[in-house]
Amino acid sequence: MSKTDRIHALNLPEAERKALEPGLQKYFAKCDEKLGFVPNVLRAYSFNQEKLKGFMGMYNELMLGPSGLSKLEREMIAVAVSSVNHCFYCLVAHGAAVRQLSGDPALGEQIAMNFRAANLPEKQQAMLEFAVKLTETPDKMTEADRASLRHVGWSDADVWDISATASFFNMSNRMAAAIEMMPNPEYHKQAR
């Protein structure tokens, strides 16, 4: 089996759809309906339904819940953090989301390669600078970093959401690297 034919490198069985509890079956069916597939990250976690529910709960709250950050901005954070961490899975999956949400087929790759070269508004630039610093040197975060976000119009609740989103993707990137999680091939074609 080639790397692209498998979800990850561990010998953990993917749960059969009918073995998932009803709420998870419904969620997977919604993925099939909206995306045309179930993301491999969900399939990877499916061997343990409690771990899957924990991952989904945090992801859904951070990426889809109410926030001063748009869905696009949250996806941009995912790509910038994943770029620093060289996370193949998240760069492919969230790069596709950036392309789709922005309507710009190049923006995901620009953020992945060098977000500073992308033509972003000052507010989004500051957001990504903060997320990248939190990823590269978390022990060096200071009040000046938070103040730089407030200066361009982010609220303290937004600073929390920027921090939480960056932190979540640092964790997710490390899991994907640890188990060599492979992105769904469908992501490569999305919004092109």
Description:
This protein has 192 residues and is mainly α. It has two domains: 16-64, AhpD-like (Single alpha-helices involved in coiled-coils or other helix-helix interfaces, Up-down Bundle); 71-189, AhpD-like (Up-down Bundle). The chain contains nine helices and no strands. Helix 4 (71-85) packs across helix 9. The longest helix has 24 residues, at 156-179. It is globular and about 50 Å long. The two termini are 28 Å apart.
Secondary-structure blueprint:
Blueprint: H1 22-35, H2 40-45, H3 49-64, H4 71-85, H5 88-102, H6 107-114, H7 122-136, H8 143-151, H9 156-179
Outline of this structure?
By secondary structure, this protein is an all-alpha fold. It is built from nine helices and no strands.
Q: What summary fits the major beta sheet?
A: none
For the record, what CATH class of the largest domain applies? Mainly Alpha
Shape: globular
Please tell me the total number of domains. 2
CATH architecture annotation of the largest domain: Up-down Bundle
Number of strands: 0
- Over all CA atoms, what is the radius of gyration? 17 Å
List keywords for this structure.
mainly alpha; Single alpha-helices involved in coiled-coils or other helix-helix interfaces; AhpD-like; 2 domains; 64% helix; globular
